[in-house]
Design goal:
Elements lengths: L7 H20 L1 H12 L3 H4 L1 H24 L2 H19 L4 H29 L2 H33 L1 H22 L11 H6 L4 H5 L6 H22 L1 H8 L4 H29 L1 H18 L7 H27 L3 H56 L8
Length: about 400
């Protein structure tokens, strides 16, 4: 594969900005639900359909554009996705009814899926395996940065200016990023093997293109890890706030502080995990982080309010970050550049499936066994996924 041109630091900064924008746009929907419900004079439950339509369209788009990017290249979908996202997000701010708003959010999910499906693939193409861990660590930090910086800022601004202005800002940022990507993000000539029209004719080959991913045991193991890890982490986090408020009798302000503390630990752990995985091995850090996270999940529900709970939550936050960068670095090395977009699209689809099913199972565990039941369920799933890595995955050597 031909080497990329351009400045690696600038390239990574652009990719981080694109990832952060996508995460903020997705994560601001739940906090804005009360304002949307009031503005459109509907129930919060009905307003919550914005999350559903966005997720469904994004999941479809990720699979579609991830496959197409293997044939056309990553950059075209990143730049077109950002420009399209800018337009439909601006329209969201002018929606006069919930139905128009849901339509614009559906379109936003498609455009966001276009660039979200290609950012990680582009980073994997750009950075060699020996340096890929730190790149994935930076990109994964966007998820946690959105949660602890972007979301509180959005809530504050929406309380002052209204929810419409948030979408104005996101639209403007997407336009700026799109223009910067066009101007500054290097091309990868070796990936441009067909025109867009030719690639569209190949969509019928998508099932065949996915088949090899479910033959190799190491690749199947990492895809299963993606499903179990995403579902386990979201299931554990979903009921953490309820546990802190109802079981430990914390105020909502204290609960907010706890989540900020966990987010800071994850944000610090994300880039650190990349550096450590490049130095000591992606597999080793993935196993270490899995063991650490499983222990935290089982232990935290039994801790009372105090120093050890703070330590446990910080450890869990760091361990979650330790899972993301090495997993992405390992998985992207399992496929050739011409298959990487499709593989990551499959991985993201399985992650969403894991989140849906395991979160539902966690709700029943909490109903009948409390948060301790959630901790045992998610801890066992994380431990099981860690065993898959330990016994079925071999660490690739740089340059292979």
């Amino acid at each position: 594969m031909k080497p990329f041109t351009g400045n690696p630091a600038l390239t990574l900064a652009l990719l981080f900005g694109v990832s952060l924008l996508g995460e903020v746009d997705y994560q601001i929907i739940p906090p804005l639900l009360p304002l949307l419900a009031t503005g459109f004079r509907i129930s919060p439950g009905y307003a919550g359909r914005a999350v559903t339509v966005y997720s469904l369209s994004a999941a479809f788009a990720i699979l579609l554009f991830g496959f197409l990017s293997d044939h056309v290249g990553r950059k075209p979908f990143i730049q077109l996705g950002l420009l399209g996202f800018s337009g439909v997000t601006f329209l969201s701010s002018w929606a006069g009814s919930i139905h128009i708003f849901l339509l614009t959010r559906f379109l936003a999910g498609i455009t966001a899926g276009a660039f979200a499906s290609c950012v990680t693939s582009y980073a994997a193409d750009y950075f060699q395996y020996g340096q890929r861990g730190r790149a994935m660590g930076i990109l994964s930090a966007a998820y946690f940065a959105a949660a602890i910086v972007g979301i509180p800022s959005a809530i504050l601004l929406s309380s002052i200016w209204g929810w419409q202005k948030i979408y104005w800002i996101n639209s403007g940022l997407a336009l700026i990023l799109g223009l910067l990507v066009i101007r500054l993000l290097p091309d990868c000539p070796s990936l441009v093997v067909s025109t867009t029209g030719t690639a569209l004719h190949r969509l019928k080959d998508l099932p065949l293109a996915m088949k090899p991913f479910f033959i190799r045991k190491d690749m199947v193991a990492l895809l299963a890890v993606s499903l179990l890890s995403s579902g386990g982490m979201v299931g554990f986090i979903t009921f953490l706030g309820i546990h802190l408020h109802h079981d430990l009798h914390l105020t909502m302000k204290q609960v907010s502080g706890v989540f900020l503390w966990c987010g800071l630990a994850s944000l610090a752990g994300a880039p650190l995990s990349g550096l450590l995985s490049d130095r000591f091995g992606k597999k080793n850090l993935l196993v270490f982080g899995g063991v650490m996270l499983a222990v935290c999940m089982v232990s935290i529900p039994a801790l009372s309010w105090g120093r050890w709970l703070w330590i446990g939550l910080a450890s869990a936050g760091a361990a979650m970050a330790f899972r993301m960068a090495p997993l992405l670095a390992l998985l992207t090395e399992m496929a050739s550049p011409s298959e990487r977009g499709t593989l990551l699209a499959v991985r993201n689809t399985l992650s969403q499936l894991g989140i849906a099913t395991i979160s539902l199972a966690s709700s029943y565990c909490y109903l009948y066994k409390g948060y301790q039941g959630v901790g045992w369920l998610t801890g066992i799933l994380i431990a099981g996924s860690t065993s898959l890595v330990a016994f079925l995955v071999n660490e690739p050597k740089p340059g292979e």
